[in-house]
Amino acid sequence: MNTRRTFRTLNTELWILVALAAVSVAIVVGVGMYPMNVPFTALSVPLVLGALLLGPRPMVWLLVFLIVLLVIAQMQQPTSTPRLIAAMVVLIALCFVALIINLRRSSLGIGLRRGESMLVDLRDRILAQATIPKLPHSWLVESALSSAGGSPFAGDFVVATKRADGRRLEVAVVDVSGKGEAAGTRALQLSGAMGGLIGALPPSEFLPAANDYLLQRDWEEGFATAVHLSLDLVTGEYEVRTAGHPPPVHRLAGSGRWHAIRSEGPVLGLIDGVSYDPVRGRLTSGDVLLLYTDGMVEEPRRDIDLGIDEMLGVAEHLFRNSFDGLAERLVAKVGSRDDDRALLLVHRR
């Protein structure tokens, strides 16, 4: 099937190459017959279309062909004015720029359009990991992600699943080293691994397994922080384990007060053979639990506790309106715009 698909792709690119070459020849013929009405700069059209539609190898042939046609078109001009010469030089320069860009992406073996579609697919896969499974009506669980600089790729991500019996919800909020596009590829690989581990292993083994996975990768920046929540959807009892991560916060509906869940554990990917001890608690009706990454609370030259206080103050203000969409609203208002941000909200109605 892969061979058939590859042949189909090559056949399509061949037809595109032939069509662009034919258009280019028609432009040069038009320049020769009507030099005052058909500008040879029209050759930039097949150049741009080729850059968008062709892979590296056929693009090289098109560029060589266009340069030859540019020389022919220039020879057909009745006079060589400085403006025509300048336009000729600019077009040839654009061909060489396109050639350099083409050679740089030749290691992937795909064209620009397909490369962009692959990046979109990778982004969608990261976001799909954060999809919260269907829960009983008595529970509201929302996640929100925002990357540094507004890029769709981030080093923060959420993975969530329900146990086979449907009684327990397993969620992890993870912050991979780096931010934005630089951390996006590592986040994709790690989110896929964690998405498989979180539903397959007992809660006590999830973070140790993720730690082992990162140690085996041997990345240059191969570490991450994480918080793992294992929640009983019937009783509201939960276990929280953290790996070098900011502490989750629990709001008691009765008193309206927040308290941090102080769970200690080493960062993932640095130390071999570590264990992560849980902190246990219980969510009663009206309670709220927030899990978040450091981008929500950390800023240069500011203590993290002050950042947590600011986040909770904004959260209290937003609670007055509605819990629905609160995660997105809180991420939009709190945290550093120069860092990735992720937030998970758990509310028992």
Automatic annotation (TrEMBL):
Transmembrane segments: 12-35, 47-72, 84-103
Domain PPM-type phosphatase: 136-348
Alphabetized InterPro entries for the sequence: Bact_Sigma-Reg, PPM-type-like_dom_sf, PPM-type_phosphatase-like_dom
Keyword Transmembrane in record: yes
Molecular function via GO: phosphatase activity
Keywords: Hydrolase, Membrane, Transmembrane, Transmembrane helix
Pfam family of the protein (one): SpoIIE
PANTHER family from the UniProt entry: STAGE II SPORULATION PROTEIN E, STAGE II SPORULATION PROTEIN E-RELATED
Protein name: Serine/threonine-protein phosphatase
Organism: Nocardioides immobilis
